[in-house]
Design goal:
seven-stranded mixed beta sheet; alpha/beta; Metallo-beta-lactamase, Chain A; 302 residues
Amino acid sequence: MKTDYGFLDTLKVTVLMDDYAGYDSGLLSQHGVSYLIEAGYRQDKKADRTILFDTGQSAGPVLGNMKLLGKEPRDLDLVVLSHCHYDHTGGLVKILEASDRCRIPVIAHPSIFRPNYSVKTALRLVGMGPENSSEAIRKAGGEMLLTGEPLLLMPGAVSTGEIRERVQFEASPTLSLLTLQEGKQVPDWMADDTSIIFIMQEGLVIITGCSHAGIISIVETAVRLTGVNKVAAIIGGFHLIDAKDERIDKTIENLIGMDVGQIHTGHCTGLKAEARLLDRFKDRFEKLRTGLVIKLPGKEEV
């Protein structure tokens, strides 16, 4: 059901952390994701907000990059966690402490603290670490808002909540993960995978963490939720690094069919998928890197 979420006028996304730091940038990279999002309005600058989407694997590199990029932790208004994985949540408490603020909303899925692990080689925990417990978050100044439903973050910005309707070829995550239910080992379908939708006159801007729910399913959810058919840009990981060729090809054909304006992707997308996206989208494709600045309308690099 379409809801009127309002519109944003300006959007600026600074990549604080990605797996790749580019050539001679002086910035740090690490397997993980963190984006600083500055969203605003031309007529009322007091209503502008700064959102931190994911916190990387650890706080040190993210905070160091923030300093080099002229960003201040104290300017954060809210934090959104895309899903439970350590490379998206590891820096949370230390970043909250660095902000030196209290009652910063931290938006996440209710299952964010569940056990999440892989047994690809041997049992390996990949979810939230004990250093980022709910009590530690509270003591650091964060206030958890746990929901699986879409949540209005500010006029023109809404989280997707759970991606409950998944297209057939994205029905299963590309990464096989497990969790525990009543003490029993079961597949983890990554129900907590959450993205942010920004609604602008140019169309939707969708920012993802890893797209474990499937990037096409995420885009279709965003369109249904907002009633806006035009997708101006997608920014984030697509988790096609371990996907079969058929899934990569279907993903790209669907993105082309949706007439997505810009694709900015990196992290878990994988070289093969990135190469094919570049081949098909040409100058509408851009590889994410630490320090990249994306502005809508328009874009710039540092």
